[in-house]
Amino acid sequence: MASRPETTINPDEARHFGALAEDWWNPRGSSAMLHRLNPVRLRYIREAIDSHWGGDGRAMRPLAGKRALDVGCGAGLLCEPLARLGAEVVGIDAAPENIAAARAHSEKQGLRIDYRATGIEALGMAGQFDLVTSMEVIEHVTDPALFVRGLAEALAPGGLMILSTPNRTPQSRLMMIELGEGLGFIPRGTHDWSRFLKPEELTALLADNDLQAFDIKGIGFDPKRSFVLNDTLNLNYILSARKIIPAAD
User: Fold this and answer.
1) Which of 96, 173, 206, 249: disulfide with 211, CB 3.0–4.6 Å?
2) Is the Cα dihedral 104, 109, 114, 119 positive or negative?
3) What's the rounded Cα separation, in Å, for the pair 89 and 79?
4) Is 109 exposed, middle or buried (0-12, 13-18, 19+ CB in 10 A)?
């Protein structure tokens, strides 16, 4: 009997998020927090790609001619803006329901996005992506080290990786689980606080795969302005990473 392929997909997590698929694009539905979080992510991503490739912040399509991969794409909240920025986008997710919702929505928007129901380990597109993103996904996988290895393998030489995830702190337990899930702002069962990664844990996983993390920003919550980028990492954080260039002999 053939050995089972390595995978980081947690079937329980895939079912949980797949059950939310039909409501994913409703800004007042079960994914309302993601809709409020997405503009902050996009602001960071836009600044990161302009900095990495020396782009003009006024350009409408700074990713033209580049390939982007969004891992754990859900129903496409990030894939669609990346496509509008000019990228050739592949979005993958463990839940087929999410992929179906993503395809249906992108078709209505007139966007060509290659959506696939698969895990990063089974994608088979090593070194083909200039930009690799994964937003609030690594805390849901079975093996973060294997997951990061898959992300690193997909990244092209000279490429840029952007990841975000909650920090494992008392503040994140309070805000995201006790209040967020407890009061119904986030669907119950979305998070397991013990699986959150501290920044030093994630940067170590990146370093193990010859990736250097840099430009780490906190994502905080301001009651007056919703989610904001700041220098405090105790709730959620987003970072950029690039391939480590070996020193010349």
Assistant:
1) 206
2) negative
3) 7
4) exposed
Which of helix, strand or coil describes residue 169? Answer: coil
Residues 6+ apart with CB under 8 A from 89: 67, 68, 69, 70, 79, 82, 83, 113, 114
CB atoms within 10 A of CB 230: 14
Supply the CATH classification number for the domain 11-53+62-243: 3.40.50.150
**Tell me: the pLDDT tens digits for 29-71?**
888 888 889 999 999 999 999 999 998 888 999 999 999 999 9
Q: How far apart are CA 228 and CA 218, in angstroms?
A: 8
Alpha helices (H) in 79-197, listed in sequence order: 79-84, 96-109, 144-154, 170-172
Alpha helices in 24-169 (DSSP H): 32-53, 79-84, 96-109, 144-154
pTM (whole model) above 0.90: yes
Q: How far apart are CA 207 and CA 149, in angstroms?
A: 10
Q: Using the structure block, give the residue that is written with the tokens 């391939």.
A: 243
Distances (CA, A) of 46 to 58, 61, 115, 233, 239: 10, 10, 22, 20, 13
Summarised one tens digit per residue, pLDDT across range 170-208 is 999 998 888 888 888 888 888 899 999 999 999 999 999
Written as one letter, the residue type at 69 is: L
